[in-house]
Design brief:
alpha/beta, Glycerol-3-phosphate (1)-acyltransferase, seven-stranded mixed sheet, two-stranded antiparallel sheet, 9 strands
Length: 238
């Protein structure tokens, strides 16, 4: 298990590399978005300065990339482990302080996210876990709710909307295993940032965790509907 002092020291020593790589990657994504996407964003309120827990719905595999458009400062995103296995890409993700989530070993990712937050850095989580293009029913994970209760840090909800018929199903092979994902490569993309949420309670109280998770998911889905209305209503781009 990692320790806050170690994480803080690691960030202090490697912050320039961490920030440089994050900024480089974000600038590439911004350039791509300006060319291929029609990004429409809206903020209900300010985004808090300092460590925070960002939560969002997950309609497409490309969501983590586009989420960085909203955050100039480095943010660590919990990602499935597949991209970490790709040469160069995996090294880039690790050096930019992204967090790998391995099947059956979510506790390690949770502990790493918790230590990053205690060390003063922001973390982004998709409670649905896997991408959910068609909005099918999926049981959300409790990690975001438990982190919110453990740290008492602000939770920033984000609702993402995209036109699912534009998403492309792309299959690839990573270390001999077939990996399939829905990638949103062009078209309108809506993102709505909600007001920060704050929660009190015990992280080991299942009733409390369930209530917090339900509130988080309800807010995310409402924000996603706001994004949908702007996109489908042909609202002027912001």
């Amino acid at each position: 298990m990692l320790h806050s002092a170690y994480i803080a020291e690691s960030y202090t020593k490697g912050f320039s590399v961490h920030a440089l790589l994050y900024g480089f990657g974000r600038n590439l994504i911004r350039a791509y978005a300006r060319t291929m996407l029609r990004v429409n964003t809206s903020l209900e309120s300010y985004i808090p300065v300092g460590p925070k827990i960002v939560v969002a719905n997950h309609p497409c595999t490309s969501d983590p990339l586009y989420l960085t458009l909203l955050f100039p400062e480095p943010i660590s995103i919990l990602l499935i482990e597949n991209p970490f296995k790709i040469p160069v890409v995996g090294a880039f993700l690790r050096l930019s302080k992204q967090i790998s989530v391995s099947p059956g070993n979510g506790r390690l990712a949770f502990d790493r996210a918790h230590e990053f937050l205690k060390a003063g850095y922001s973390v982004a989580i998709f409670p649905e876990g896997d991408s959910n293009l068609f909005g099918s029913t999926q049981t959300p994970r409790t990690g975001a709710a438990r982190l919110a209760l453990l740290t008492k840090l602000p939770v920033v909800p984000i609702g993402i909307y995209l036109q699912h018929e534009r998403a492309r199903l792309i299959s690839s092979s990573i270390r001999g295993h077939r990996v399939v994902g829905h990638w949103y490569l062009n078209g309108p993309l809506g993102m709505t940032v909600g007001k920060p949420l704050y929660f009190d309670g015990a992280a080991d109280d299942r009733v409390c965790v369930k209530a917090v998770l339900e509130e988080i998911m309800k807010k995310i889905l409402l924000l996603a509907q706001d994004s949908k209305q702007r996109i489908e209503g042909n609202t002027t781009r912001i």
